[in-house]
Amino acid sequence: MLRFPHALRAIAIGSVAATLAACSHMPLPSSLPTEKPPTKVPTNYDAYYGSPTQHQNGAARRDQAGQTTDALQLQPNAPQKYVVKKGDTLWKIAKKFLVNPWYWPEIWDKNRNLANPHKLFPGDILYLSTENIQAADGTTRLEPRIRVERLGNQGQPISVLANFLEWPRIMDETEIRNAPYLLESRDGHTLIAPGETLYARNVRAPIGQRLAVYHPDGPVLDPETKQVLGHQVKYGGVVRVERTNEVSTLTLLESFNQVRSGDRLLPIQKVHAELNAPIQYPPIKIRGQIAGLYEADYISADYMVIAINRGKQHGLKPGYTVGIYHDGMTVADPYQPRQGGMPQVQLPPEKVANAVIYSVGDKVSYALIMDSTREVSNGDKIGNP
Fold first, then answer.
1. How many angstroms separate the CA atoms of 273 and 376, rounded?
2. Within the chain, where are the H helices?
3. Taking a C-beta distance cutoff of 8 angstroms, is the pair 320, 357 a contact?
């Protein structure tokens, strides 16, 4: 039983509820202003995402605003001589000499005897010097040059991206579905170790051939159009074909990630030509977005792989360096005219990393993050470096 004060409170609450219910069916007075969402001040930050620069015969580069850019700026502590070491990458070497390593091809000695400026061997000696270069207008200017003395040739040449051979691939869904697949290991182990026997179906490769194991990882969507760019498969390891039949016998030679039932078997990709593509500044305007992160859900860092929603159709090539840009925050402008709230202003984007493209498909490309000043997030923008 309610005591008197509680009864009054219950009556009062009931009265308020009834009044609110009645008001909900009443039209608002025409004189009462309706709340408007804050207006967004339009901004155009396209120039912040970089642009291709012009450079011919030592002429000064100019950006879209016509301002000269010092693209070939040397590092303050650039060595006069450097001996190539085992484990070096072209990016690492170029960074020793240049502030912007993607301009490496422009300082390579054009009179060199070597066919490829990116194919260096451990033991090779690089010499930094300056030479008189004739510009298009007939004038001459001093520019840095790198020449090489071949003393090494020890083992394999260095590559642009060196030890990152176990990368994801973008494939057509039908191509994945038609590929041979793993059934099980001989002992039914969840974690399959190198040396174990595996069984697979639809294997048409000859005995002794090696195949790559890939795990289907779902579609890659264009963050702008939401269209499917392709289906990603992740590298798992390498197997050797021992016997072929309706159910074929394989041996797992190496594993990079977990190998499991249902994984697909694909030809081993020969990526050495792409890995040796020279790092360079792209001569075209690039605008895109990160469509996915490899081996990460939300953020990536140096030497991690990103998928970009641009490819051959957009003029991309292996070796192109791109910049990764993070959108600025949206903030309120306290001094702009108000109409229903403070106008919202988008702050400029900021570059957070550089990446080198190493694999290019029709609509999507893969790139390796080379130097980041902060984390790289899914959805970050892609532009010129």
1. 28
2. 4-23, 90-97, 104-107, 173-177, 272-275
3. yes
Q: What are phi and psi of 55, to 5 degrees?
A: -150, 115
State how beta strands 344-346 and 40-41 pair.
Answer: parallel
Residue 239 has what pLDDT? 96
Joined together, the tokens standing for residue 357 give 């493209």
How many CB atoms are closer than 10 A to CB 119?
Answer: 14
Question: By the 8 A CB rule, do 323 and 353 touch?
Answer: yes
Beta strands 210-221; 228-243: pairing state: antiparallel
State the pairing for strand pair 365-372/299-300: unpaired
Pairing relation of β-strands 61-62 and 376-377?
unpaired
Spatial separation of the C-alpha atoms in residues 176 and 180, rounded to whole Å: 9
Global pTM reads 0.73
| DSSP tag of 78 | -
**By C-alpha distance, which of 213, 303, 200 is closest to 256?**
213
Tell whether the model's pLDDT for residue 25 goes beyond 50: no
Record the tokens describing residue 113, joined without a space. Answer: 């005897």
Q: Are 356 and 344 a contacting pair, CB within 8 Å?
A: no
Q: Which domains does the chain have, with CATH numbers?
A: 54-149 (no CATH), 169-269 (2.40.10), 281-383 (2.40.10.410)
Strands 365-372 and 330-332: unpaired
pLDDT confidence bin for 176, thresholds 50/70/90: very high
H or E element, residue 339: none
Over range 223-240, report the average pLDDT: 90
* Lowest mean per-residue pLDDT among 33-37, 197-201, 238-242: 33-37
Residue with tokens 């912007």: 100
User: What's residue 190's pLDDT?
Assistant: 82
Nearest to 93 by CA among 69, 128, 142, 61: 128
Give the Cα separation of 59 and 360 in Å (integer): 31
263, 193 contact by CB (below 8 A): no
Q: Write the pLDDT tens digit of every residue in 280-289.
A: 899 999 999 9
Lowest mean pLDDT among 22-26, 272-276, 356-360: 22-26
